[in-house]
Amino acid sequence: MPQLALIIDLNKCVGCHACAVNCKSWNTSGKFGPLPEKTPYGKEPTGVWFNRVQTWEVGTYPDVDVLYLPKSCMHCAEAPCVAVCPTGASYKRAEDGVVLVNYDDCIGCKYCSWACPYGCREFDEADGVMKKCTLCVDRIYDTRLPEEERKPACVLACPTQARVFGDVQDTDSAASHAIAEGQGFRLMPESGANPSNRYLPRRKVKVTVDQEMITVRRAAAVKSVRKSVDIEEAVIEDFGF
Amino acid sequence: MAPEFSIIFLTVFAGAGQGLFLCIFAVDLLGAIRGAPLAPETVALAMVMALALMTVGLAASVFHLSHPLRGVKAARRYKSSWLSREALALPPAMGLIALYGAAAWLGYSVDARLAIGAAAAAAALYLYLATGMIYASVPYIKEWNTAYTPLSFTLIGLAVGGTGAVAVLEISGEAALTAVRGVIPLMLAAALVKWWHWRRNARLFTPFTPHAAIGVMRPDARLMDMGTTYQHYNTTEYDARVPAAAVDTARYVAVIALFILPLALLLLDYMPLLRGEGGWLAAPALLLALTGAVAERWLFFVEGNHAQNLYYGSYRGRKGPNPLLESGKAHAPLPPR
Ligand code: SF4
Ligand code: SF4
Ligand code: SF4
Questions:
Q1: Helices (H), B207-309
Q2: Among B71, B172, B212, B269, which residue's beta carbon has the most beta carbons within 10 A?
């Protein structure tokens, strides 16, 4: 059974919130109607967002690093939110594994959100129905869009290409390759929900700068600050978890 | 979890209504076996009371749903959802309870009335199970995810409803001794199970950790920003944000009003009943017990600590109180290492 999902590379994510903003923009103006906000310009805005980029601080000063964690519905394989929905408004599509809510059937009992371990369901107070990431089903199959744009809005917006979209059951897809190469993991695996979205962990990155690069750099540095730079070889180490 | 009064009233009042019916039915059945069934008017009056309690609960629950008119659709997923099963069980339970009362009122034979009553009793008991399992089947709220939940819902419903049954019997001048003898052990059992439930939750080991939640296998990760907007559904719905003092007060109210005072009043009534005189203390005991049950159910919600709170900085650790509740802050980062 195919399973579409998002793969998010935590190594590449710079926490710019572009995915979240484009998600909001697409989904509030798209086929599924507006995503309301309360006091959006006030001091304490609240509202419905399908995708939120969290900021975590890891480590102890001075060895701290920042982790950006974009989080949206994981389109779980054993979606617990679907099983508990009394009306059948929440369902998982057999053809692509996308978990959706039929807003016309939802009675607003909120039971599904109790069953979601990831806090990814968002209640729309204005419509009185439960909403969540749709994996942009209204984009990904739209043949009026150019082929390269038939992707979720968040994926298209990401400036560092930290988000990969694809079928994680198809071993040959870009998504599966990304998971295999980047050692993709699931958030909170003990939830038992078997989330389909995967995250690629932060890695220790070692960049060895060769002599030629240093020569070029030095020339540029000397030119700009008129100071000699004594770099023979530089090793740039990024913080890895 | 944020306490939601519509659900609190639904579970308390519907549970009490079922309990009232079940206790009256038990008294009626035992009486019939001994050759002295209840007077038909008493049964009818009791069923009006039971249905009134259940209707209060039902009316409250309508406020919980934003689309109550679509409620009929809630019967669809009975194969996997306890909420659906509750929605399916509620109308037949109320219908059969009404029929039991009507059969008494219309003067049907005692056997016919008891047959309907038996069907209603099965429906009412199943309804207890379904209501309790709605909460007990949520694996991410470990405080609820236990057999204590349906057990205490059932026993508290029976104890409160039983007190109501005694009140109805006393008001209609029936012999209430059998009922009191049944309700006192029910009350004690309810108190014992609730105490075990609270004790279990106080020592609960929760398997969810912030490390696995974000995939960083180090103990020193702190939430700095939960991502877009100040608050939202997943922070307000799942975080009780009540001061610790309110939790303590609710526990005192629950223990005193739900268990101690009704028990004392029923025991006070026991003596005159034994002498064959009428009692009148069950009615105030019922009001107290209902108040206490609301406090107990409020506490049940506030105690619920959902795993998703790990993502929003409001997860209470494996033990101890919520730092967020103590500081009174709207939302705080994870507790320091
Ligand atoms: S992340 Fe939550 S809402 Fe999405 S499929 Fe899983 S349980 Fe359902
Ligand atoms: S809130 Fe809507 S989608 Fe969620 S369980 Fe209730 S009916 Fe189903
Ligand atoms: S897939 Fe679409 S709906 Fe889901 S987070 Fe991305 S942009 Fe939002």
A1: 210-214, 233-236, 244-253, 261-274, 282-303
A2: B269
Rounded distance, CA A191 to CA B264, Å?
45
- CB contact residues (below 8 A), chain B span 65-94, against chain A: 65-68, 70-71, 73-77, 80-84, 87
Range of the domain at A219: 207-241
Average pLDDT over residues B113-124: 98
Say if residue A215 is in the same domain as residue A196.
no
The shortest C-alpha distance from B326 to chain A (Å) reads 21
CB-based contact B230 A45, cutoff 8 Å: yes
Inform me whether the C-beta atom of residue B230 falls under 8 Å from chain A C-beta atoms: yes
A4-9/A198-200 β-pairing: parallel
User: Same domain for A127 and A71?
Assistant: yes
| CATH architecture of the domain with range B5-63+74-331 | Up-down Bundle (1.20)
Compute the mean pLDDT over every residue in chain A, rounded to the nearest whole number.
89
- Six-digit token pair at B200? 């279990």
Please compute the mean of the pLDDT values over residues A4-15 and round it to a whole number.
Answer: 96
Q: What is the pLDDT of residues B254-273, one digit of tens each?
A: 999 999 999 999 999 988 88
For the record, the structure tokens of A8 come out as 């998010």
Q: What is the pLDDT of residue A234?
A: 45
A54, A85, A201 member nearest B223 (Cβ): A54
Read off the pLDDT of each residue in B129-156 and give the average, rounded to a whole number.
97
pLDDT at A223: 60
CA distance A53 to A13: 10
pLDDT per residue over A78-102, tens digit each? 999 999 999 999 999 999 999 999 9
Contact assignment for B226 to A57 by CB distance below 8 Å: no
Take residue B288 and report the two structure tokens written for it.
């107290």
CA dist., res. B88 & res. A175, Å (int): 42
Is the CB of residue B288 less than 8 Å from the CB of residue B262?
Answer: yes
User: What distance in Å separates residue A240's CA from the closest CA in chain B?
Assistant: 10
| CATH assignment of the domain containing A40 | 3.30.70.20
The pTM of this model reads 0.89
